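PT: before anyone asks, these are the final sequences, not the draft ones from last week. 181 residues across everything. Please model them as a single complex and drop the result in this thread when it's through.
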Amino acid sequence: MDREKVIKAVEQLLDALGEDREREGLKDTPRRVADAYAELLAGEGQTAEEHLSRTFTSDCGDTVIERDIYFSSTCEHHLMPFFGKITIAYVPDGKVVGLSKLARTVDVFAKRLQLQERLTRQIAEEIMRVLKPKGVFVVCEAEHTCMTCRGVKKAGSTTLTSCALGNFDAQKRAEVLNLLK
Ligand code: ZN
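LR: through. Structure below.
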């Protein structure tokens, strides 16, 4: 990200919106917005390899479920936040990973310009690629401020997406979804 360019662009945006950007409240806004974007998009170009490589050995083959990992991301259609929670279920193949590492994995993909469907799939794909479980199922429930702060939708309405990869059959998926009700 080119910070100086972002600052200039926000100045132009404020001008285009007809605002007086010399007034007190707006004076530092371009700089603040640039700093916010730097943080919101910090996951661009990152992988979760270093997080998902920190594994423990486990010979138990039961499904591991980490539920309600809270995240916030930025919708690429409107540059507005969407946020919610993600549940990750996987069937280990000899290795498990700590909750904090899964949360960091979520962040790597959430801190980008995103779409909810893509966020859900990228997390599942990265877990398959690095942790190599027998199967993984990722469920994401999110509120999109581009829908709840404008347009027709009511606040609090959420969108649900999911992605199953590898060996994670319909019965196991139903068990996880049931747990989330
Ligand atoms: Zn949007």
